[in-house]
Design goal:
The two termini are 35 Å apart. This protein has 10 helices and 10 strands. By secondary structure, it is of the alpha/beta class. The protein has 2 domains: 206 residues, 2-enoyl-CoA Hydratase, Chain A, domain 1; 47 residues, no CATH class. Helix 1 runs parallel beside helix 3 and helix 8 packs antiparallel against helix 9. 46% of the residues lie in helices and 16% in strands. The chain binds ligand T3D. The site of ligand T3D has 22 residues, from helix 3 and strand 6. Ligand T3D binds next to helix 3 and strand 6.
């Protein structure tokens, strides 16, 4: 059977495409595992310097596949014969959690190219990426409350940090469709671009990030996340330690040398 995840390489950029367009690229355990393994392999492959995550067809991702036979609730007949209801906690622990932690700790920048609707876990998967670029026709839906659940895939952590408690609660409780242009306006995503320009804009951005000092970019993500849990003095200490470490690295030497010589730098640390 064909893989639900498509992998494409262009130079140092790896594009991962969620590829189940008939069901809006909703996530099965098979797709979640494929995503984890692809991210893990990319993390090991030093020739990869940027990852792009996108969806095939008209959607980015409609979240958990609510009909995945691997986790579907028992039907009436099965329930009558004593089958247990599905254990969503198990699904999260074994498939979502490892995938999301793998994504957030990638040693390279990750771009979400949100080509269409991103709902439920699909929305929070996109928002967990470093830079989120969405097509004008795309939208974000915290669909969880509509089926009696709370935001998962890191949503409870990400949303209030990104847009504040008031907006996070509005989005998560109501589960309304948030158009990409609004998502950009409230600072939930990096950019909203014309549909026809999404692929080109993301390609340019990915190539640009791939040519940048990867280690510095990744430490920037980590430092910003870590700073959420500390006071100013703690953040200053962390900045100082990182700057010290990066100051000994090749990319810094190269960056300064290139600036002085008025030439383009050639970064290689990862
Ligand atoms: O197991 C658990 O519950 C664990 C939970 C984990 C976290 C979650 O992700 S919970 C949230 C799950 N996702 C949703 O609740 C979203 C469900 N989808 C929708 O609300 C709508 O599809 C959209 C708003 C995203 C898009 O609407 P629309 O009108 O553009 O498309 P559609 O007609 O609803 O969907 C097209 C097809 O995709 C359709 O199949 P069909 O009728 O053509 O055969 C639809 O059933 C299928 N589809 C869409 N989303 C899912 C799905 N199939 C399975 N699972 C889905 N999540």
């Amino acid at each position: 059977p064909e893989s639900p995840l498509r992998l494409e390489r262009a130079g140092a950029v790896l594009t991962l495409t969620l590829d189940r367009p008939a069901v809006l690229n909703s996530l099965t355990t098979e797709l979640l595992r494929a995503l984890f393994l692809a991210l893990d392999a990319a993390a090991e492959d030093r020739s990869v310097r940027c990852v792009v995550l996108t969806g095939a067809g008209r959607a980015f991702c409609a979240g958990q596949d609510l009909a995945d036979p691997a986790i579907s609730p028992p039907d009436e007949a099965a329930r009558a014969s004593g089958a247990a209801p599905k254990d969503i906690g198990h699904l999260l622990a074994h498939f979502y959690r490892p995938m999301l932690l793998r994504l957030r700790s990638m040693p390279v920048p990750v771009i979400a190219a949100v080509n269409g609707v991103a709902a439920g876990a699909g929305a929070n998967l996109a928002l967990a990426c470093d830079l989120v670029v969405a097509a004008h026709s795309a939208s974000f839906i915290q669909a969880f409350s509509k089926i009696g659940l709370v935001p998962d895939c890191g949503g409870t952590w990400l949303l209030p940090r990104a847009v504040g408690r008031a907006r996070a609660l509005g989005l998560a409780m109501l589960g309304d469709r948030l158009p990409a242009v609004e998502a950009e306006r409230i600072g939930l995503i990096w950019r909203c671009v014309d549909d026809a320009e999404l692929a080109g804009e993301v390609g340019t951005l990915a190539a640009r990030l791939a040519a940048m000092p990867t280690r510095a970019l990744v430490e920037t993500r980590r430092a910003l996340d870590a700073a959420q849990q500390t006071d100013l003095a703690g953040a200053l200490d962390h900045e100082q330690a990182l700057q010290r470490e990066l100051g000994f690295a090749h990319d810094y030497q190269e960056g300064v040398a290139a600036f002085m010589a008025r030439r383009a730098p050639s970064f290689s640390d990862r």
